Amino acid sequence: MTQIIVTKDFIEKGEENFAEKMENFIQMAPQYVEAGLLPAAETGVIIEKLKADELNRKQKNENQKKAHDSRTIYVYGHKITEKDLREYKKLVCSLPQVTPEMKRELGLVNKPKSENTHDKKPILKVRVVGGVPHITFIKSPMQGIMLFAKTNNGEFDYQTTVKASYFDDSRPRLSPNQTEVREYYAYYIYKDKVVGLQSEIVRIVLDPVE
């Protein structure tokens, strides 16, 4: 076996590795300055810049953590608020003294929304779950999708109707000990008819089964 020797740059690419290495430099360099082995002015300047860089790094990480924590708190609380608001709407709508005009003014009404089906197409996402392709898509407001699939270099000769918002392609492998490629596209179904545009073709590679 031939070994190739490469030169690794002294500046570490990883954030943590860089910080650890520079912390050691900040601790050790002043000793060599005192011994007259390193230039005092230049070493002092670079140490101050490294300290400022480390402060910025810590502040950046702290801000990211705060942002993540804030989003987590908001998402959790917002879901509860949505649920409570739906219950409140039910209560208000059950009160005889609350008129339709009041509900409209308060924004507690469902508004009809019309969508054209001719230009809608599913957005398929596929990943391997439990060893089989797991396909997901946004179903609402459609009835489902008509899904087409092909294996390796074959034709799109597999077709199935999917009424849920996901589909697990659990068909047997052509050859379990070989890599297999499966590709999919779909059309939406509305009132039991195929509507809209064809989705983009998505592709997934299945590794051999050991």
Describe the protein in words.
The chain has 210 residues and is an alpha+beta fold. The chain has 2 domains: 7-111, no CATH class; 125-206, Immunoglobulin-like (Sandwich). It has helices at residues 15-34, 40-93, 100-106; strands at 125-129, 132-136, 144-151, 158-162, 166-168, 180-190, 193-195, 202-206. The strands form 2 sheets. Strands 3, 4, 6, 7 and 8 form a 5-stranded antiparallel beta sheet that branches. A 3-stranded antiparallel beta sheet has the order 1-2-5, with no helix packed on it. Strand 3 and strand 4 (158-162) form a beta hairpin.
Give short descriptive properties of this protein:
3 helices; 210 residues; Immunoglobulin-like; 39% helix; 21% strand; single chain; five-stranded antiparallel sheet; 2 domains; three-stranded antiparallel sheet; alpha+beta
Helices and strands in order:
Elements: H1 15-34, H2 40-93, H3 100-106, E1 125-129, E2 132-136, E3 144-151, E4 158-162, E5 166-168, E6 180-190, E7 193-195, E8 202-206
Antiparallel strand pairs: 1-2, 2-5, 3-4, 3-6, 6-7, 6-8
